[in-house]
Amino acid sequence: MENDKGVVLATVIKNKPNALVTLEREEEVSLISLNDQGSFNSLSENLLIELFDALTKADEDDSTKVLILKGAGRGFSAGHNLKEVQENQNESFYRDLLNSSKKVMTILPNLNKPIIAEVHGVATAAGCQLVAACDLAYADNKTKFATPGVNIGLFCHTPLVPVSRAIAKKHAMEMLLLGDLIDASEAKRFGLINDIFGHEELHEKVMEVAKTICSKSSYVVKMGKETFYKQLDMDLEEAYEYATDRMIQNLKAEDAKEGINAFLNKRDPKWKNS
Fold first, then answer.
1. Within 13 A of 167's CA, how many CA atoms are on the CB side?
2. Domains 10-214 and 218-264 share a fold
3. C-alpha distances in angstroms, 159 versus 1, 7, 126, 127?
4. Which of 15, 28, 168, 223 is geometrically suited to a Cys-Cys bond with 214, CB 3.0 to 4.6 A?
């Protein structure tokens, strides 16, 4: 369905019966929901495979400018499915599971479009890892976060990768060594999430953020996200060399010319997304 300006208002995307991950769209925003509610959206191998497919599909959708990742039911995600792990005690399964997880976690910063975590209930272990790996994250005021693997003799080795990159080292080590639940206020103080809202207004507020991003040039947003993540691993001199090249490339873009002209002439820009 479209409005009089041709903008997509809502699209229900056909999902498989009993899908572990669902995909739908609100205007220019793709909503990806973890949907294994009986296990608190635990990240089983099958769920991870479906999640990767949904992320790829949404990223390739030309009518989508922003992705939101959320959990259905009582919480965001309790991490890997420990029952599944216990039932498959062999290295081949461990490696397949963790490789499926790695594919999801590494595609998030490499998506062409920003992805926002909309978090409620709990986000623990690999669920917390998902939050840390997203570009932005917002939670309701009752959400709890943890990397509790140390409590069961299984350190959160893979969750620590994005967590240690998202927050200060001392905060990361505190979460990893103590394994305690922290509330949303502490998660915000640590820098794990951007902001906190009441449960009833969470989705509305996250959509406001998403729509603000949608109002920007998608070409510029894509380029900027790519620059941000690539320069993180460079030394200072190399980062400036890379960023200078990217700035020059951006200045040559049609949307930069349009944006500068609109700013100087005190009018709204008309993006060509190029």
1. 24
2. no
3. 40, 38, 5, 8
4. 28
**At a CB cut-off of 8 Å and minimum separation 6, what does 210 contact?**
29, 66, 68, 116
Q: What is the mean pLDDT of each run of 10 residues along the chain (274 residues)?
A: 46 74 96 96 97 97 96 96 94 96 98 98 98 98 98 97 97 98 98 97 97 97 97 97 97 96 95 92
Residue 16 near residue 52, CB atoms below 8 Å: no
Nearest to 223 by CA among 201, 243, 200, 203: 243
Q: Which residues contact 218 (CB under 8 A, 6 or more apart)?
A: 65, 113, 271, 273
Token couple for 274: 């190029």
Beta bridge partners of 33: 22, 70
Could you give the 3-state DSSP secondary structure of residue 27? coil
pTM of the predicted structure, to 2 decimals: 0.93
- The helix (H) or strand (E) run that includes residue 262 is helix 254-264
Amino acid at 174: E
The span from the CA of 126 to the CA of 114, in Å, is 20
Compute the distance between CA of residue 47 and CA of residue 198 in angstroms, rounded to an integer.
28
- For the chain, the first-to-last Cα distance in angstroms comes to 26
Q: What would the CATH number be for the domain defined by 218-264?
A: 1.10.12.10
Query: Which distant-in-sequence residues (6+ apart) come within 8 Å of 257 by Cβ?
Result: none
Q: For the chain, give me the number of helices (H) and strands (E)?
A: 11, 10
Residue holding tokens 């709990």? 122
Report the CATH number of the 10-214 domain.
Answer: 3.90.226.10
